[in-house]
Write a structure and sequence with these properties.
Layout: H1 5-17, E1 32-39, E2 42-49, E3 57-61, H2 72-85, E4 88-92, H3 102-120, E5 125-130, H4 132-146, E6 154-158, H5 171-174, H6 183-194, E7 217-222, H7 228-240, E8 245-250, H8 263-277
Parallel strand pairs: 3-4, 3-5, 5-6, 6-7, 7-8
Antiparallel strand pairs: 1-2, 2-4
Helix pairs in contact: 1-6, 3-4
């Protein structure tokens, strides 16, 4: 689908006529507590452990190229992490592009995280996202930093899409090995999300944003993933600017591999569990 922008846009139009469900699978409630509320017109789900815990909070921004809805694989990952760590997850369902535009969504998403910080403290809050949700996670973290909030506990990025321009020369090398993503379709989707913003605006391409003053960052990237190029650029920037980065490469892995039923995914989840439960004193 992503190899042809017209095919991508056609699928987006089809889903606008008949939207996909965003509600968690019913089976989730057997293992975790699921509740929802409305926050300014956004459905926001809270996924808690069955046994009350003070392990902390994570706000999760789901992937989908900013145009596709949250997927059962996202919910399964979230439930596994809740059960393994006792952490409470907040999962906002943002409006998808073109209805959801970066200039509005990033600001409102940051305000949602800021509200949680006001309730429980920045040291008890992590932000996490995959793919486009990883890009949003970085943009939201930068916005919160610019609002002068204290650093959060951690930032976790799974296959983050950090540059929507599709111009990195490395993409031509990776693209033939990626069975999932392709530049033409993702670029078309990104254009809907950025709307009036330029492609190098940090809200849509946070690779261009300031990395200073953020929480500790953990990154997962697969070597057969188109957005691996973005992750490598983030790693290089962090090294050049003296910013610590916990960087994990899944050799031969495809896009979003930590969400998939793979042995390598189990290893990645163990690292994520440590990142979102780390003591604030170790940050």
């Amino acid at each position: 689908m992503f190899s042809d922008p017209e095919r991508t846009l056609s699928r987006i139009a089809e889903l606008r006529r008949k939207p996909a469900s965003f509600t968690p699978p019913r089976s989730l409630s057997r293992h975790v507590d699921v509740s929802s509320r409305d926050v300014g017109g956004w459905p926001v789900f809270t996924i808690r452990p069955k046994t009350p815990s003070a392990a902390g909070h994570v706000v999760y921004f789901h992937g989908g190229s900013y145009v596709f809805q949250i997927d059962p694989f996202h919910w399964k990952l979230i439930a596994r992490l809740v059960r393994a760590t006792g952490t409470t997850f907040t999962v906002p369902i943002m409006p998808l592009a073109p209805d959801g535009r970066a200039s509005v969504v990033v600001d409102r998403a940051a305000t949602l995280v800021q509200s949680l910080v006001a309730d429980v403290g920045a040291e008890n809050v992590s932000v996490m996202g995959d793919s486009s949700g990883g890009g949003m996670t970085m943009a939201v973290s930068m916005e919160l930093r610019d609002r002068r909030l204290p650093p959060l506990r951690s930032i976790v990025l799974i296959a983050p899409w950090l540059d929507i321009s599709g111009t990195d020369p490395m993409l031509a090398e990776i693209a033939p090995r990626d069975p999932w993503l392709a530049v033409p379709g993702t670029h078309a989707a990104g254009a809907l999300y950025r709307a009036e913003l330029e492609e190098d605006d940090w809200r849509v391409s946070p690779i261009h944003g300031d990395l200073a003053g953020l929480a500790p960052i953990t990154v997962f990237t697969g070597s057969r993933d188109l957005v691996h190029a973005d992750a490598l650029r983030l790693r290089d920037r962090a090294e050049n600017e003296g910013i610590a980065l916990d960087f994990h490469v899944g050799e031969g892995m495809i896009h979003d591999y930590p969400l998939l039923p793979l042995p390598e995914a189990a290893d990645a989840r163990s690292v994520i569990e440590r990142a979102i439960t780390r003591s604030p004193s170790t940050n």
